UniProtKB/TrEMBL annotation:
Residues 1-24 form the signal peptide. InterPro entries: OMP_Chaperone_SurA (IPR050280), SurA_N (IPR015391), Trigger_fact/SurA_dom_sf (IPR027304). This is SurA N-terminal domain-containing protein. It comes from Capitella teleta. The keyword Secreted does not apply. GO terms for molecular function: peptidyl-prolyl cis-trans isomerase activity. PANTHER family: CHAPERONE SURA.
Protein backbone atom coordinates (compact mmCIF):
# COMPACT_ATOMS: atom_id res chain seq x y z
CA UNK A 1 0.00 0.00 0.00
CA UNK A 2 2.86 2.37 0.85
CA UNK A 3 4.37 1.63 -2.56
CA UNK A 4 1.10 2.51 -4.27
CA UNK A 5 0.88 5.78 -2.34
CA UNK A 6 4.45 6.69 -3.32
CA UNK A 7 3.74 5.99 -7.01
CA UNK A 8 0.55 8.07 -6.88
CA UNK A 9 2.38 10.90 -5.09
CA UNK A 10 5.24 10.80 -7.58
CA UNK A 11 2.76 10.82 -10.47
CA UNK A 12 0.95 13.82 -9.01
CA UNK A 13 4.24 15.69 -8.57
CA UNK A 14 5.25 14.96 -12.16
CA UNK A 15 1.86 16.06 -13.46
CA UNK A 16 1.90 19.26 -11.44
CA UNK A 17 5.43 20.18 -12.58
CA UNK A 18 4.80 19.29 -16.20
CA UNK A 19 1.39 20.99 -16.10
CA UNK A 20 2.86 24.19 -14.73
CA UNK A 21 5.43 24.11 -17.51
CA UNK A 22 2.67 23.84 -20.08
CA UNK A 23 0.82 26.65 -18.36
CA UNK A 24 3.95 28.77 -18.30
CA UNK A 25 4.55 28.06 -21.95
CA UNK A 26 0.94 28.83 -22.92
CA UNK A 27 0.92 31.96 -20.75
CA UNK A 28 4.12 33.08 -22.46
CA UNK A 29 2.56 32.40 -25.85
CA UNK A 30 -0.52 34.39 -24.88
CA UNK A 31 1.61 37.32 -23.71
CA UNK A 32 3.61 37.22 -26.94
CA UNK A 33 0.43 37.13 -29.00
CA UNK A 34 -1.03 40.04 -27.01
CA UNK A 35 2.16 42.03 -27.51
CA UNK A 36 2.00 41.43 -31.28
CA UNK A 37 -1.62 42.53 -31.38
CA UNK A 38 -0.85 45.74 -29.49
CA UNK A 39 2.14 46.47 -31.74
CA UNK A 40 0.13 45.87 -34.89
CA UNK A 41 -2.94 47.76 -33.68
CA UNK A 42 -4.36 50.24 -36.14
CA UNK A 43 -6.69 53.02 -35.08
CA UNK A 44 -9.80 52.77 -37.21
CA UNK A 45 -11.45 56.04 -36.30
CA UNK A 46 -12.35 57.99 -33.22
CA UNK A 47 -14.90 60.54 -32.10
CA UNK A 48 -13.52 64.08 -31.88
CA UNK A 49 -16.77 65.87 -30.99
CA UNK A 50 -20.30 64.93 -29.92
CA UNK A 51 -23.10 67.28 -30.81
CA UNK A 52 -26.55 66.40 -29.47
CA UNK A 53 -27.32 63.02 -31.06
CA UNK A 54 -24.53 63.13 -33.65
CA UNK A 55 -20.75 62.86 -33.66
CA UNK A 56 -17.84 64.15 -35.69
CA UNK A 57 -15.26 61.49 -36.44
CA UNK A 58 -11.52 61.99 -36.82
CA UNK A 59 -11.82 60.84 -40.43
CA UNK A 60 -14.30 63.67 -41.16
CA UNK A 61 -11.97 66.21 -39.58
CA UNK A 62 -9.00 64.81 -41.52
CA UNK A 63 -10.91 64.92 -44.82
CA UNK A 64 -11.97 68.53 -44.24
CA UNK A 65 -8.42 69.51 -43.21
CA UNK A 66 -7.09 67.94 -46.40
CA UNK A 67 -9.65 69.86 -48.48
CA UNK A 68 -8.70 73.13 -46.74
CA UNK A 69 -5.01 72.45 -47.34
CA UNK A 70 -5.68 71.83 -51.05
CA UNK A 71 -7.85 74.92 -51.35
CA UNK A 72 -5.38 77.23 -49.61
CA UNK A 73 -2.44 75.79 -51.54
CA UNK A 74 -4.22 76.31 -54.87
CA UNK A 75 -4.73 79.98 -53.96
CA UNK A 76 -1.15 80.38 -52.66
CA UNK A 77 -2.41 81.38 -49.22
CA UNK A 78 -0.08 80.79 -46.28
CA UNK A 79 -1.35 78.18 -43.86
CA UNK A 80 -1.81 79.03 -40.20
CA UNK A 81 -0.16 76.72 -37.65
CA UNK A 82 -1.64 73.21 -37.86
CA UNK A 83 -3.14 73.36 -34.35
CA UNK A 84 -4.92 76.64 -35.13
CA UNK A 85 -6.18 75.33 -38.47
CA UNK A 86 -7.40 72.09 -36.90
CA UNK A 87 -9.28 74.01 -34.19
CA UNK A 88 -10.91 76.33 -36.74
CA UNK A 89 -11.93 73.45 -38.99
CA UNK A 90 -13.38 71.49 -36.05
CA UNK A 91 -15.37 74.55 -34.92
CA UNK A 92 -16.72 74.93 -38.46
CA UNK A 93 -17.71 71.26 -38.56
CA UNK A 94 -19.48 71.61 -35.22
CA UNK A 95 -21.38 74.70 -36.40
CA UNK A 96 -22.38 72.98 -39.64
CA UNK A 97 -23.48 69.89 -37.74
CA UNK A 98 -25.72 71.99 -35.48
CA UNK A 99 -27.23 73.71 -38.53
CA UNK A 100 -27.79 70.36 -40.29
CA UNK A 101 -29.60 69.09 -37.19
CA UNK A 102 -31.72 72.25 -37.17
CA UNK A 103 -32.54 71.64 -40.83
CA UNK A 104 -33.59 68.05 -40.14
CA UNK A 105 -35.77 69.14 -37.25
CA UNK A 106 -37.24 71.88 -39.43
CA UNK A 107 -38.07 69.39 -42.17
CA UNK A 108 -35.57 70.68 -44.72
CA UNK A 109 -34.90 68.02 -47.34
CA UNK A 110 -33.09 68.25 -50.66
CA UNK A 111 -34.54 65.80 -53.15
CA UNK A 112 -32.51 64.29 -55.97
CA UNK A 113 -34.18 66.47 -58.61
CA UNK A 114 -33.17 69.70 -56.83
CA UNK A 115 -29.69 68.33 -56.22
CA UNK A 116 -29.21 67.31 -59.86
CA UNK A 117 -30.41 70.72 -60.96
CA UNK A 118 -27.93 72.45 -58.65
CA UNK A 119 -25.08 70.27 -59.89
CA UNK A 120 -25.99 71.04 -63.52
CA UNK A 121 -25.99 74.78 -62.72
CA UNK A 122 -22.58 74.52 -61.02
CA UNK A 123 -21.15 72.74 -64.05
CA UNK A 124 -22.73 75.32 -66.38
CA UNK A 125 -21.34 78.24 -64.34
CA UNK A 126 -17.90 76.70 -64.70
CA UNK A 127 -18.51 76.28 -68.44
CA UNK A 128 -18.36 72.48 -68.27
CA UNK A 129 -20.55 69.62 -69.21
CA UNK A 130 -21.68 67.34 -66.42
CA UNK A 131 -19.15 64.73 -67.55
CA UNK A 132 -16.31 67.28 -67.53
CA UNK A 133 -17.43 68.38 -64.06
CA UNK A 134 -17.25 64.76 -62.84
CA UNK A 135 -13.77 64.36 -64.34
CA UNK A 136 -12.54 67.55 -62.67
CA UNK A 137 -13.88 66.35 -59.33
CA UNK A 138 -12.07 63.04 -59.74
CA UNK A 139 -8.87 64.88 -60.69
CA UNK A 140 -9.18 66.89 -57.46
CA UNK A 141 -9.48 63.66 -55.48
CA UNK A 142 -13.21 63.84 -54.83
CA UNK A 143 -15.64 61.22 -56.07
CA UNK A 144 -18.86 62.37 -57.69
CA UNK A 145 -20.95 60.73 -54.95
CA UNK A 146 -18.95 62.56 -52.26
CA UNK A 147 -19.39 65.82 -54.14
CA UNK A 148 -23.15 65.21 -54.46
CA UNK A 149 -23.50 64.72 -50.71
CA UNK A 150 -21.34 67.76 -49.98
CA UNK A 151 -23.49 69.88 -52.32
CA UNK A 152 -26.67 68.50 -50.70
CA UNK A 153 -25.21 69.41 -47.30
CA UNK A 154 -24.38 72.94 -48.48
CA UNK A 155 -27.90 73.36 -49.86
CA UNK A 156 -29.39 72.34 -46.50
CA UNK A 157 -27.05 74.74 -44.69
CA UNK A 158 -28.07 77.59 -47.03
CA UNK A 159 -31.77 76.94 -46.43
CA UNK A 160 -31.25 76.86 -42.66
CA UNK A 161 -29.39 80.18 -42.83
CA UNK A 162 -32.10 81.70 -45.03
CA UNK A 163 -34.74 80.66 -42.50
CA UNK A 164 -32.72 82.16 -39.66
CA UNK A 165 -32.38 85.47 -41.49
CA UNK A 166 -36.05 85.50 -42.49
CA UNK A 167 -37.09 84.96 -38.87
CA UNK A 168 -34.96 87.90 -37.71
CA UNK A 169 -36.06 90.35 -40.37
CA UNK A 170 -39.37 91.93 -39.47
CA UNK A 171 -40.69 94.92 -41.36
CA UNK A 172 -43.57 96.83 -39.83
CA UNK A 173 -46.48 98.34 -41.77
CA UNK A 174 -45.21 101.78 -40.80
CA UNK A 175 -41.78 101.07 -42.31
CA UNK A 176 -43.41 99.92 -45.56
CA UNK A 177 -45.58 103.06 -45.69
CA UNK A 178 -42.54 105.25 -45.00
CA UNK A 179 -40.57 103.58 -47.77
CA UNK A 180 -43.40 103.86 -50.27
CA UNK A 181 -43.98 107.52 -49.49
CA UNK A 182 -40.28 108.43 -49.72
CA UNK A 183 -39.32 110.40 -52.85
CA UNK A 184 -36.68 107.98 -54.06
Amino acid sequence: MKGLKRIALASLCLLSFSGSGVYAQSAGAVQTAQKRIVESRVDLDRIVAKIDQDVIMQSELDARLEAVHRQLASRNIALPPEEVLQKQVLEQLILENIQIQMGKRGGIRIDDWALNDAIARIAQRNQMTLEEFKQNLEADGLSFSQAREEIRREMILNRVRQRQVAQRVQVSEQEIDNFLSSPE
